[in-house]
Specification:
This protein is mainly beta. The protein is built from two helices and six strands, in the order E-E-H-E-E-E-E-H. It has a domain of 76 residues: Nuclear Transport Factor 2, Chain: A, CATH 3.10.450. A six-stranded antiparallel sheet has the order 1-2-6-5-4-3.
Length: 121
């Protein structure tokens, strides 16, 4: 990852994942690095076969540094309802443990947990 002068990290977005095997390998690497991952997504807009969402997730690395990753995703679906295209912009911001906002036990986000708007994200 490259670090900007603002202390944020940006991801290399030149990678294209085009097969199930490549996707499995990508996700395995991601989840080995991003521990105790908690995610919230919010629908931003939709029209026909396209959806835009915004998201935030929190995780820590194996050294214990916490991050809040946030950004936007655009999804396009084929005639069978399968995702045909995904474009994402993701920023990682180091945070102190006390700055975390996404708290729940491992597993899906519980009903009633605040969403992005309610959290001010």
């Amino acid at each position: 990852m490259d670090r900007s002068t603002a202390g944020r990290t940006t991801r290399n977005t030149a990678r294209a994942v085009t097969t199930g095997t490549a996707l499995a390998a990508f996700l395995t690497r991601k989840w080995q690095r991003e521990l105790d991952y908690r995610l919230v997504k919010e629908l931003w807009a939709h029209d026909g076969d396209r959806i835009a969402v915004r998201f935030a997730y929190e995780w820590h690395d194996d050294a214990g540094q916490w991050y809040r990753s946030h950004g936007n995703e655009n999804w396009e679906f084929d005639a069978n309802g399968l995702m045909a295209r995904r474009l994402a912009c993701i920023n990682d911001l180091p945070i102190a443990p006390g700055e975390r906002l996404l708290h729940w036990p491992a597993g899906p986000r519980p009903d009633g947990h605040p969403g992005l708007t309610e959290l001010g994200l």
